[in-house]
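User: Sequence in, structure out. Go.
Assistant: Echoing your sequence, followed by the structure tokens.
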Amino acid sequence: YYSLTAWLPLLLTDTVGMSITKAGFVASLFQVLALIGSFGVPLMLRRFSGAAAIASVGGFWIVTTLGFLGAPGAWLLWSITGGIASGAGFTSIFVLAMAHTRDLDDNRRVSSVVQGVGYLLSSMGPMLTGALHQASGGWSASLLMLTLLAVPTIGAGLAVSRLLAPRA
């Protein structure tokens, strides 16, 4: 999320020749579309498991990064899928955390660890994405890295959702 959000305007100007103003607007749209994902996860969880939500979010991320890599001209579609995935990702993480805690204190502990570790790791993403872009002279390496990082993220989310049955 942070990597794509940070570099989306430059990605669009570089790959499709979009003006920086329009690219900034698209980045804003990307953020607004996160609301669909945020509100969609609780609705999805009424019918499907946490594992299905995590797999869907991961699938949207993979489609987004591969889409920008293989068909950047369809930037509107990839901005929609990425925006939805960004909101759904955050909501899924917190819903899973709350579903697997006993009480408010337990929730605070789990949320602290999830947010502390999560933000620490994700803060490195934009720097690494930019470094790969600069070193390679294009976006392919960065987009492939983001695609590949989605795989263990999906795996970890699926493992957590299966290992931790909701507590009564």
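User: And one key feature?
Assistant: The mean pLDDT is 90.
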